[in-house]
Design goal:
Blueprint: E1 7-11, H1 38-51, E2 55-59, H2 69-78, E3 82-87, H3 94-98, E4 104-108, H4 114-121, H5 126-138, E5 143-149, H6 157-167, E6 171-176, H7 181-185, H8 187-190, H9 194-207, E7 213-215, H10 219-222, E8 236-239, E9 245-246, H11 266-272, H12 274-277, H13 295-298, H14 303-310, H15 326-334
Parallel strand pairs: 1-2, 1-8, 2-3, 3-4, 4-5, 5-6, 6-7
Antiparallel strand pairs: 8-9
Bound molecules: iron/sulfur cluster and FE2/S2 (inorganic) cluster.
Length: 353
């Protein structure tokens, strides 16, 4: 029995004004002229709602760079979808927000201070982000502040929590870097030490009595695989800017063929496509997962991580302490030069048109 999906990540574009080294977008970004049109997205939102999706997360890249974003948000509303705008905040002023009847806004900052945040974003953006956050609150909309954590900012989590309080954020999302796309290239620069991770967890634990904070210990450090995206093809789907549909945003790197909404219905893709069925359930699992009591809890961990580290998307997630490939993770954890200053190694420059 395959459950209906609950959430859809709609990657409206890979274009973005920021150049974050932890970006999980593909290293080969989708060109702008390959993006789904307004009409195509309208059909996709309708098919998603019919399939059972209740939440549409409008993301990118930077979704505000879509000139038709007003129409896309209106389309979501017509189809009864709850809309969450995931944005850098650049380009979001009171006039633009008034034309976007989204239910929720998530704004990212890269650190707790202007200089550090702009350094990581690779562009001057802090002031506009803070203004955008205030605009959202002034308009009475729910706001989540999002910060991706890595070695250069993880020690500033106390200041980030204070910033979220000052902005009146309803929720703070502290997300450790996931090593896909650009972030995988830059892993040696981004990976925090075990000491940093443990200290951060303590700061977060103390602050949770005052604020809603979403924070999960990084799987690489704990040795506990995450039930990635709630399980392969179980609750979420991602539609890429060019229309390819995948169980997660990072799956473009996998040696699987993903169907496109230009050729197939979302219903067929979800229920019948070989790629969505490839890692559903537990029958595909190798040992030690196959005979493990936790296989219904972590649902096999992360397929993208397994592929990136072992070359086999069907391997046991090497994060797991029972995996025969765990030494690959231990080597990555031991690798980073913990005292090096934060460099700007590789970062997305935006797709071509
Ligand atoms: Fe998000 Fe930064 Fe990547 Fe833009 S460059 S998509 S803000 S992570
Ligand atoms: Fe793709 Fe985890 S990111 S399965």
């Amino acid at each position: 029995m395959i459950p209906a999906p609950l959430g859809m990540l709609a990657e409206l574009t890979h274009a973005c004004p920021l150049h974050c080294p932890y970006c999980s977008n593909p290293v080969a970004l989708a060109p702008r002229d390959s993006e789904l049109s307004t009409q195509e997205w309208d059909r996709v939102f309708g098919e998603a709602a019919a399939l059972g999706v209740v939440q549409a997360h409008l993301s990118g890249g930077e979704p505000l760079l879509r000139r038709d974003l007003d129409e896309l948000v209106a389309s979501c509303g017509r189809h009864g979808l709850y809309t969450n705008l995931i944005t850098s905040g650049l380009g979001l002023d009171a006039d633009r927000l008034a034309r976007l009847p989204v239910d929720h806004v998530q704004i990212s900052v890269q650190d707790a201070t202007e200089r550090a945040s702009d350094d990581i974003a690779g562009t001057r953006s802090w002031a506009r982000k803070i203004t955008a956050a205030r605009v959202v609150k002034d308009a009475g909309r729910p706001l989540t502040l999002n910060v991706v954590l890595h070695r250069a900012n993880v020690d500033h989590v106390g200041a980030v929590i204070a910033l979220a309080g000052e902005l009146g954020a309803d929720r703070l999302e502290l997300a450790h870097t996931q090593y896909y796309g650009w972030a995988l290239r830059n892993r040696a620069w981004l990976m925090p030490s075990m000491e940093q991770v443990l200290a951060t967890a303590e700061v977060v634990r103390a602050a949770r009595t005052r604020m809603e904070i979403s924070y999960v210990l990084p799987d690489l450090h704990t040795g506990t695989p995450k039930p990635c995206t709630g399980g392969w093809g179980r609750t979420q789907l991602t539609v890429a800017p060019g229309g390819e549909v995948r169980p997660c945003a990072a799956a473009d790197s996998l040696p699987l063929e993903f169907a496109n909404v230009r050729d197939r219905s979302l219903d067929w893709i979800w229920y019948s496509s070989p790629s969505f069925n490839r890692f559903r359930g537990t029958d595909w699992m190798p040992d030690p997962c196959r005979s493990c009591a936790l296989k219904d809890v972590d649902l096999g961990g992360c397929r993208c991580q397994a592929f990136q580290l072992t070359g086999d998307p069907g391997a046991t997630d090497p994060v797991c302490r029972l995996s025969p490939d765990r030494h690959l993770v231990d080597a990555a954890l031991a690798g980073p030069p913990q005292t090096a200053p934060f460099p700007r190694p590789h970062a997305p420059k935006g797709p071509s048109s």
